[in-house]
Amino acid sequence: MIKTPLTVAGAEKLRKELHRLKTVERPSVIAAIAEARSHGDLSENAEYDAAKERQGFVEGRIKEIEGKISSAQIIDPKLLDADGRCVFGATVELEDMDTGQTVMYQIVGDDEADLKENKISISSPIAVCLDWQVCRGHRRSPRPGRGEGVRDHRRPLRVNGAPVSHREPRSGISRETS
């Protein structure tokens, strides 16, 4: 079974949702089905159909969360030594080179990514690009098998609070053309 990375906070959020679904939502749906059954004929009972549909949703979500938790590799980002790299759990501060504005993102697992909370997936293009820029010193994001990369107008400033050294790309590896 493939393990998927999940932060401690992400795992706790999934456990809370699972608990709520099992202790609040499931009993509520069962009560709604019983109520709808008491109205008589089920063939033309819209309340019954709606309650059964809701039950299917709740049970499906319970199975989905249980599967995610069972296949999760729970990682505490505080215990990781990223060594200045953009790895799972790292907090990265970026600067827009056109406007000078900065923004911070945390790199998290696919299931807990939420751009509104500035959490991006480890497998997202921006996380891959950040790893490429920080570790390799490139200013273009990789596009495997497609020649030159795409120019990115953001540059990493800090990873986990440590400044990123913007070194020149190693010779023979640079994809940047000025």
Structural commentary:
This protein has helices spanning 8-37, 46-70, 125-136, and strands at residues 4-7, 72-75, 91-96, 102-108, 119-121, 140-141, 150-151, 154-159, 162-163. The protein is elongated. The model is unreliable at 137-143, 145-151 and 166-178 (pLDDT under 50). A hairpin with a 5-residue loop joins strand 3 (91-96) and strand 4 (102-108). The two termini are 46 Å apart. The protein is built from three helices and nine strands; from the N terminus they run βααββββαββββ. It is α/β, with parallel strands linked by helices and 178 residues long. Helix 1 runs antiparallel to helix 2.
**Secondary-structure element pattern, one letter each:** EHHEEEEHEEEE
What's the oligomerization state?
A: single chain
Q: Estimate the mean pLDDT confidence.
A: 77
Structural class: alpha/beta
Estimated share of beta-strand residues: 15-25%
Strand order in space, largest sheet: 5-4-3-8-9
Annotation, overall tally of beta strands: 9
Shape: elongated
List the main descriptive attributes of the protein structure presented here.
178 residues, alpha/beta, 5-stranded mixed beta sheet, 9 strands, 38% helix, disordered C terminus
